[in-house]
């Protein structure tokens, strides 16, 4: 907001204040006024990217309700106040990018310390001037940290062995310090997926640490210039999700072996400047991954002729959001910018910086940029922010190897954002409530550029002047209009008859519906919006190829965007398809009266110019099948799969028990379960669905339809469709969730395959051979046996032997409780307890996100993935 000056003493009088965000006002300077300690009801304090100097006052420890504290990217100096240890409700501590000095404060029975923050999930203390050792007392088994950043400081001595107490840790950055002693043993950190220990002086060792191959969730490992020696085990490269390995500038020797079933995700292996003498299977793997062996013995002996002997180049492909098809960018005034949908407006601009992106190849860069762009638009729409589109461009790695992306956020409905809208946009990104696609990881910050309020005021003033001028001109023109109206009055009478003829087509969108076409009677609606064909052409850029996102038996699916910025999925029936007409009627009638968070929402339809089109909410992460097959790039661990199973089961239970009349889906499969931006499951595609005539009806006699491998065998034999038919299909989906196999694969039926492989007398029913390797370690699969038992009950041959979906939901909830997980429903009450029932507030990594917490909001706890 271009604020300037210092915080006055009067700041302490806002004693009822609960949230304060003054971020990105570079003119805010001076010291942080100690009076801020009087704001004892404050739960959020964001002062990011200002110009504050001096020490952080000890009075910060008075803010015992504080949950989020972000003072990063300022010029604070002096020590970290020990009084921060009094903030026992703190979840997020972000002090990165200052000039803080001294040691890390730890409690000693008299004074407090950071070790008392047992509910904190985030310690971001990097890029300061902290010194001394990492005190052993800092880490204890009660801590729930998931992110630990102490990088780019001047910390010395050994890494304490009890760092292994941080069993929930996912990201550890200790790079660019002066640490020495043995390389820390991280064997107990089974959830660790991103680690950087680079540029430290650990003791020289000719033995690769044993934990290298035991951390099965590792995605990125960086130990550049750490005195690492010995030969790399082939098992390192078999870690299922491993994508990036940087062990350059060490003393690694022997033969490099990546040949034994390496991770399919592997994109970059940088082993430059080591002592490797040979590489097995070099022709097969050197081209498929970004491998660098420059400066090794093997390259010196071959005079650098091998492809892997060239140092890696910048691996971020150029990208810029294209203009929409059939859209000519206009010539805008010098202060305005043409948006992707070719409107001149004043965007909100800046950089989004990702600190740990886990994709490396140019091939994937463009795909992930498009995914990020879609996620941002969906997020802004969900937050009810007036955003029409987002443009991303010029991705590049900075000197710290962070990924910087320039962004432009364009307003919807107006040429510019007003100050309130800018404040809300900025806070939504500063508070990290936006969850980017998983490959960007979750550590990001944004650096906005000052918004040009002068232009905003000029645009507003122009509108005001235009309004006054319009009144004067309107008065003069009014007389002319009166004459014209007299002429039009005569024409009106003539045209009235034609208008009356066409009126039913507008008031009744199905006036031209032909019941004899085989599609049944006219659809009966319950509030669905009617679109014209011209509108949908505009929203999809004339159904352009770039907006084409799928194909099914019904027809083509396109992505579109409404004028308010809402993303939509548009399913267009094939011309002349009677089957399309039946599905069209079914989905309109059913979905127009079905509203549940686990059922995909119908936005509207189009029955115009011979077209039959359905318009849905756009679900950004695609189908469950895409994620299980690896096509989406989303990793589904055991906890996430349980949540997805529970969400889909609740959607089905709603259809069976609460829809009026009850609905049998008839085509439940992993392709018809969609995952939104928080991986919440939504049941989709009701083209084959059948309503029961009333709650007392038990079945519908109908021709067998569905997808091979999912069809209820009893329905197949009797042609009697029941709710238990959906239960059977859902049981097959449950088996897909644990195996990631197709229902029928290489002639093997998934139900038979699981039954033949299982041995109930052994741990996990001895299903290791059929389990999807990306699901997690055996020790993390608590409740798997009960899950398998439930799935096999669902796929019993006879319907009466199967559980109702309400029973399935209860059992899945019980399994989640066994893991200590809350149900999705608990998130609303949990959040209410934090912010008060009147405020709809979402934590970053909240219960509705892909992470979970147990306990109240005052004690968020990350559970095993």
TrEMBL record:
Lineage: superkingdom: Eukaryota
Organism listed in the record: Smallanthus sonchifolius
Protein name as it appears in the record: Uncharacterized protein
